Amino acid sequence: MKIQTVGVVGAGVMGVGIAQNLAQTGHQVILIDVSEEILEKANQEIKNNIRFQGFFNKKEKPENPDVVLNRIQFSTNYKLLDGVEFVIENVTEKWSIKKEVYPQLEAICPESVVFAANTSAIPITRIASVTKRASKVLGMHFMNPVPLKPTVEMIRGYHTSEETIETAKNLLSQMGKEGIVVNDSPGFVSNRVLMLTINEAIFLLHDQVASAEEVDRIFKTCFGHKMGPLETADLIGLDTILFSIEVLYESFNDSKYRPCPLLKRMVDAGLYGRKSGKGFYAYS
Predict the structure, then answer these.
(1) 36 is catalytic
(2) Which GO terms describe its molecular function (predicted)?
């Protein structure tokens, strides 16, 4: 059965991509964030993204951006989520912030609604513990840019039911995506490997072994990667990278996850990558 209405909490890079993808596949979306300014920026980003898709995809004529945006309701009011069938949460990768979202969702959403956490490192079982519906909580780790990525890493928490997994797979199928289910562990599969790779690449810069361009060129030309690890870091956001690697460091108490001092310094300086205009590379 088709899921008609989806709540998306958090209108950052990932929330924008998920809302856009859902709207472009015919879903009604309620996009929630804390300020009108953030939501207005999200509205403009979605409009621009759809236009850019039209430039790059000449074979298919994209829908008019206004038609897509009409399927998205932008709001700061959580109470609007009382009629959704599924929620995807995308707030900042800080447990102190994330854990405050779920009691609000719990109080508003019907008991049947699945809560999907789009997190790159925080354990799903921990997230489920602050709800009264642990069997209906799972992880859905989308990749950026969301509309262009065909696969989502799905994470089964300790209590996640098979019915919840199937409901989430159904939604992903409606979005034109496939889900790969893995078990709960900090960082799951993708970020347990990727964050170490990016952090080590940053150490190479810190230790003056190679430049950012040289590091990325080796990965692209020697291994066939479409992007190098530092280009990938700029795309994800260096603040998100730091949050994720700190969660891994805290969770495993293993020194191999120690964040590179250069990464910390760049985040302190506001050099987040593409979203701030400068990271390891400059963006106009």
Answers:
(1) no
(2) NAD+ binding; oxidoreductase activity, acting on the CH-OH group of donors, NAD or NADP as acceptor
